[in-house]
Amino acid sequence: MSYRSALAMLAWAAVIVPTVGAAQAQDKKYPDWKGEWTTVVPRMPGQQLRFDPSKPYGRGQEAPLTDEYKKIYQDNLAEQAEGGQGLFLGHASCLPAGMPTMMSSGGPHEYIITPETTYIASGGSDLRRIFTDGRSWPTDLQPTYQGFSMGKWIDEDGDGVYDVLEVETRGPFKGPRTYDATGLPLHFDNDSTFKERIFLDKNDPNILHDVITVFDRALTRPWTADKTYRHGKSKYPNWSLTSCLEGTNYVTIGREFYLVGGEGYLMPTRKGQSPPDTRYFRPAQK
């Protein structure tokens, strides 16, 4: 090796070693939330997917809805009682659940933390990006299911490691959106705001909390719930990708929801349901 080459290598080392060291030091500032996190939902009657896991499903959630949206919810429940999907039609048709329902998913959650962005993969198909790089709020947002999220890491106990991620998520959202399958609605203006504090339980590091507050014009006041997730025991989780369309026998045509029977024929899902308009098909040959 020439004297000049040796000097060049020393110069590169002087640049790279401090950079690598700084990056390693920076990485140690962030919590280790790797692995699989599964939603903890106390067993109660009805479907387990609900915004506030500490309260019963549907009406039992006691959502602080305005009078207008109480009426909308009741009409939606009446439609469901007749076999329809009501306001839950979009997600029943396999559109993404969006916020806040995606944080209630019973499927696994994964947290991928980088200094600039924290990613939350939810239920095998939904993905949130929480930007923690200090950028300004954009003024040209397009409607999305998950909204736009900005976050800030906090070291509350002063030990040099971040332990709380504070997040604000804004719209516009794609809608209509519901909290659960009973069609419990968010406002149709799709302009909600969500504020979250995500942190490990102080007594059990295998429990992760997401204390989420909803600010929405369909509510008479902000609505807060503490969602919890339990860390999986598998060192190498099986991150399978799931699709709502897999195995489903339901078909949505316009605002109508039909069932495909075992013989392959389209069937009604409620009494008195009209068949779809077949004007563009030739009559069946007898």
Q: What does it look like?
A:
This protein is of the alpha+beta class and 286 residues long. The protein has three helices and twelve strands. The chain has helices at residues 3-27, 67-81, 89-92; strands spanning 37-40, 108-113, 117-122, 126-131, 148-154, 164-170, 193-200, 207-215, 223-231, 250-253, 256-260, 266-267. The protein has a nine-stranded mixed beta barrel. The protein is globular and about 75 Å long. It starts with a helix and ends in a 19-residue tail after the last strand. The model is unreliable at 17-25 (pLDDT under 50).
Write the layout of secondary structure elements.
Elements: H1 3-27, E1 37-40, H2 67-81, H3 89-92, E2 108-113, E3 117-122, E4 126-131, E5 148-154, E6 164-170, E7 193-200, E8 207-215, E9 223-231, E10 250-253, E11 256-260, E12 266-267
Parallel strand pairs: 4-5
Antiparallel strand pairs: 1-2, 1-9, 2-3, 3-4, 5-6, 6-7, 7-8, 8-9, 10-11, 11-12
